[in-house]
Every structure is written in structure tokens, then in C-alpha cells.
Amino acid sequence: MLIAQISDFHLKPKGTLAYGVADTEISLKRAIAYLNSLRPLPELVLITGDMVDEGAQESYSLLQQILSLLKVPFFMVPGNHDHKKSLQETFPDHRYLQTGVEEQGRPYFCFTLESHSLRLIGLDTVTPGEHGGGLGATQLAWLEQTLEAQPKSPTLLFMHHPPFASAIGHMDGEVFRGWQAFQSLISRQPQVERILCGHLHRPIFRRYAGTLASCCPAVGMQLTLDLREEAPSTFTMEPQSIMLHLWTELWGEKTLLTHLGVVGEYPGQYSGPHPFFGVVSPE
Ligand SMILES: [Fe+2]
pTM for the complete prediction? Predict the structure, then answer.
């Protein structure tokens, strides 16, 4: 099973540059063209939040138009730049966005996708009005119950906010709400193959509670690679990337393997493929 992950488009209304710099419409169209050109095509695409930049309805209409170009099904979780109600209204056929749990009087999307060889669980870490994320007691109870219902099913979790610090100073001030309870819950569920996140606009990996957690680079713009505590909030227009997660059997063992794919500004920007001649180790 081949799963593509894309994240953080920060789409603006047509004709508007994000932060006066980034043409996020073009970036998203390039990423979709890149995904559609992959061989083999992924079975589905997971989108880990911040599909639009400021929650504007015009941005969601544009999002819907562009995503309709994808040749494979896609599933989304919201990011802190998304407006959940607009997201639901723009994609009424995405029934999983109608289900969830209520936490302190607010609805949160929480859902499972059961018809694939890897069980997929989407988590909504967004509380309107907040930049940082987290999971509350009701969501965690739902997650534990959902995981315990199928302890033998290899499972992939996807969510916007990473439940760990990144060492990018300006992002770490916002501690993931409930991170300790979440970490302890995951450590009791060895069937969790991976936790896929967005939000940090960079490729990041770490060991996490007996599994691996990762952040996907952004489609819109990348956060500056600045690991100082005083790192200011800035971005760069480094190349966009996507992640490909392959659930397969190789050398007789089942594994979830991740590759990074770099999206060019135009087809053929990066030359290749070129023959790579095999050479044995020099004696
Ligand atoms: Fe983002």
C-alpha cells in the first residue's frame, strides 16, 4: 500500500500571495501534478492540515477546485489555519469530517479509515483561536478505545500538530496539550506503525513511544532551518517536498518505509533520470 502525504498548503484566495511572497496556488498545483505523475500512483493521499492560510471561504473554494485534479482519493485533518466549519461545508462528501468527539462543548474530528491494508486514524488537534495544538481527555479516551478494539491491526495515525518539540525556537513555546498522556497511551499500543504530522513545514523524524513520529515538509513554504532558542518566525522558498509511505513486505519482513519526493517548479527542472552504473567495492 502506497500512501502519499502532503501538508501545509496555506492557500490564499486567488491572486493573493501568502505573506506577500508565496504563490501558494501555483505551489499546490505543482504538488498535485507531481503526485499525479508518480508511478505507481499512491493508493490515497493524506493531507495533514493548514490547507488554507486564513480560513477564508474563497480559499476553500479554490482548494476544492485544485484538489479535484488529484487522480486518487484524499483524506484531510485540519490545521490551526483552517476553519473547520468551512472545511466541512466545502467537502460535504468527505463523511469522516462529520464524525468525531466533543471535548468541552467543542466538536473535534476523529475518525478511522478501515478499508485499507493499514488501519488509518485521523486526529483533530486544533482548538479554534489557538496556534498550538493538543488532545483532550475525551479524544484520548476515544483513541485508546479505538486502538484497543484492534490491537493486532498495524495502524498509522495522522494529525496536524506534532506531539513533540522541534528545537525550532519559536515553535516550541507552544507545548502540545496532553502530550504526556498521549505519549503514554501510544507506548501501550505497539501496533502503531507511525505518527504522521504537519505544522512544522520541515521533514523531521524522531523515535516516539516505541514508534516513529515524523513531520512532512510544506507545500506552501518551508520554515527556516534555525535551531536556536531565539529563532524568529520566518520561512524560505526552499523546494517543496512530499512524503511517500510504503507499507510492504521487503526481504521477508513487513515494514512501513518512507521516501521524500522533491517537487520541481516545472517538469524536468531537476535533470534525470541518468544511468547510475553499479560498481563493486574496490579491492
Ligand atoms: Fe502550517
Answer: 0.96
